[in-house]
Design brief:
Four copies of one chain form a homotetramer. By secondary structure, chain A is of the alpha+beta class. Chain A contains eight helices and seven strands; from the N terminus they run ααβββαβαβαββααα. In chain A, β1 and β2 form a beta hairpin. In chain A, α2 packs across α8. At the A-B interface, α1, α4 and α6 of A face α6, α7 and α8 of B.
């Protein structure tokens, strides 16, 4: 507790009270989606993206917040993602297309996630990435705010490599609402990610990427489990992590069988519409 | 453990044994509600209040104990709350109206929650508050009894501002059963809350308020999650909390999208009667 | 970890291997219950006892092991308890009657729980006790093996009084299988419990008693929750427990409304046969 | 945290990016099983093996990974195990037969688990063992990477004896992907297990064995629970483990009633096909 830095007691809760007179601080009504133009993408890709939304909710990676996207198969500079809604409720009708700047191609009155620039920025500089997950997982936050490096504690999370970097938004802009609201912040985050699979975001969450939708979902889920395990292990004593030699080999081994988990996760979600 | 203060070993359990001869200590039979007068409030408000009861149970904020209320739309000095029962079982027929002193307007033999004075006292002094949650969440208790300040560790709980105050009932009355059984204790609690969104209660629980039912439910749920995350983070090392600049901005950002969570939580509860 | 006492590495696992040739160490086949004599007890008491079994499983107090009993309304020196089976599967046909020595009145080939002497011994010396729960809850074990006193950290578990005693079976018999296999061990346990509501058993579990089935179930459930909360709180810092003045008052307050929890728990179990 | 050894920051994540061009690192498509030859084993054994798969998933011992096998009743040098798939989805059609070298007797295009050599090696040297579970349980990993010995903290996990050994794969091969991919590694693991019931695997998981399918499942489940309890207890203070005298007696006592748990676990899984 000695490390706790108690900030100045500004009356921030006044802002809360003020909310009743500030329309901007009210919850935005869920815009009723107009009959959307059917997307011309591979139906399997769209189905996998809907499953990814449901799986990540079912596996406690996402709650009412967070999102998952996939690179478009028709135009690789574009990506697909749900309109702004809880991922656990997403259906194929909710998927929208976004351009390389993160702007909706055909919004039709539907709201887009504010933080779509996370996805746009990473797709711009990582041609190998085909899918991206952004989550506020409570298991990850402790690592993002204490500087403890998240490292692969067992073979199934070897994709964490030498450790996940931590993105500090204050390094780009000292006065934000913590959200990646524009391409400048998106680019800074993508730079922090580099060529890795996972980047943590201080006081916010993390991003996991993959060479396919199942691969990104796999990374997102096992990043979370690794965090739980590592936090618990560190309370028992010094941790013997995977070695630099073991990491790339274990990563290849896990990737070879991740379809096994994907089938299981889909079965837990059940039939989707 | 060095901090443990082992109290005098008074034979308090004798009270337990005595319970068999003390009718007052027996469980009160659930009074069968008489056909209640239908409330003339906005049906949407009543529906949201029933959903709030069910959601808070489904999200583990409430168990057999705790309650949630809403300010009346017909008479803003009055409020609406269930009769004394487990929130997870509440239906619209169980909602009662209370006056500004916390007394039932038309009890019809129904029992009211003993701690209704929590609600009455806050509605009296916080015109901005439209809904109130009181919970005994096990995740919150550790913060209430150790003096560790609960602070926003990530953007979604920015409403915690500079930290939740802790209400010490002994400061008002050294010899209570811990419950807010009257308006004097209610007023002291409301004063401790001040213009904030959340107040912890030592050895008891917490209260979260909001400018709407969804907003109060949101605060109650994310206060609990923040507690889990903060407790875990503090075991890893010194915590880098949201800055004074980030807090009000992040709070506005979260409030703008809380409807997304509300829809998800309702879907988890399913159809209500 | 410095406190860990690593015992001599006796080849105890040989016993495991030997198990294949030692019939006594094999799982006893579940004896198919013969058409049992219908018990002449109050049907409400029998129904509550079945609910208690199911609730305690549903609330994670019991798993395949542990049991719950009720004092007989017909012969207060006798008690009622299921035959030896997982509590979560108990139906009214599985309830047996036991005499004051813990022996089945009419076994009809049904197996009784080995540790029925826990119940017999307590009913003999605690006329106020009408129901008893014995559990191996994982949340309780840490308190039973470290000497940390389990104390009421919030009002709903005030029945813990000045702290739950810890029964050390070695004080009675240094060489047991940890089970309360006879009345001598049962009497020692009952003495350790004294006039309290809860006693922990070192490396084994705990016993909670009540003036009714719902009261014993309530104590069993909130003892477990208190353990989780206290363990977490002690990691944050010195704990401010309920005061000696607050404990008896809070206990009476909670008991007055425990029917509220009982109705909720029953609803979670659903219809029983 | 002082104990954390931060490895060299090799660009292991490049391997991740490269995955898109390395077919070997792609998820293997689930081979559609051809109409398999019906196994001539005791139907009860096959049914129990399917239940074991489902139970271990339902009880959170296995997720998409891990496996469970049984020694063949027809040819005791052979064993039975599912094709490579998530255990939670296994049906009797998925069970394959393996010889004493761990090779499929009649694969018919079905993939076998890479780590089948764990099972083959143990069956070769432990005639008493009739069933084996291999799991990556997150609760076990902390013990495998910190050197903290997992010991029986209560009677139900007395089978842990004087403590579970930890298998260090680096002692046999310094440069692996952590998996038991051949009989040499399998033999080393079996040697580390010795005549015990459980062996942990550093940065990987554990293996639990039994004299029957229910016994192995029982050991696997209570090893996991013991890990949770021990980790929590060690945070409270020095732990008073079962004594060398209590261990073998408590083990026999638990084994005598494990059928009670088995029936419960089966009921949770429900009907299998």
């Amino acid at each position: 507790m000695s490390g706790l830095r108690i900030g100045v007691l500004v009356a921030v809760c006044a802002a809360f009270s003020l909310a009743i007179v500030l329309p901007a601080a009210r919850p935005t009504p869920q815009s009723a989606p107009q009959a959307p133009a059917p997307l011309a993408n591979d139906p399997k890709l769209l189905e996998d993206l809907v499953y990814a939304n449901r799986i990540l909710y079912q596996q406690d990676v996402l709650d009412g917040f967070g999102h998952v996207s996939a690179r478009s198969d028709k135009d690789p500079s574009h990506f697909l993602m749900s309109r702004s809604m809880a991922p656990g409720l997403v259906t194929s009708n909710d998927i929208m297309e976004f351009d390389s700047d993160g702007e909706p191609v055909d919004a039709r009155g539907r709201n887009a996630y504010v933080e779509r620039y996370i996805h746009a920025a990473i797709y711009r500089v990582r041609p190998d990435v085909k899918a991206i997950v952004h989550s506020h997982s409570p298991d990850i936050i402790p690592f993002s705010v204490t500087g403890t490096i998240l490292r692969p504690i067992y073979h199934v999370s070897a994709f964490l490599g030498a450790g996940a970097p931590i993105f500090e938004i204050r390094d780009t802009d000292r006065s934000t609402d913590m959200l990646i609201r524009n391409n400048k912040l998106g680019d800074a985050l993508a730079k922090s990610l580099g060529d890795r699979a996972v980047v943590l975001m201080r006081g916010h969450g993390y991003v996991a990427v993959g060479y396919s939708i199942p691969a990104a979902v796999y990374c997102a889920i096992y990043t979370q489990i690794n965090a739980r395990v590592q936090a618990e292990a560190m309370k028992l004593g010094p941790v013997n992590f995977l070695s630099a030699e073991e990491i790339p080999k274990a990563q290849a081994g896990s990737e070879a069988v991740l379809g096994r988990s994907w089938e299981l996760w889909k079965s837990r979600v059940g039939k989707i519409e």
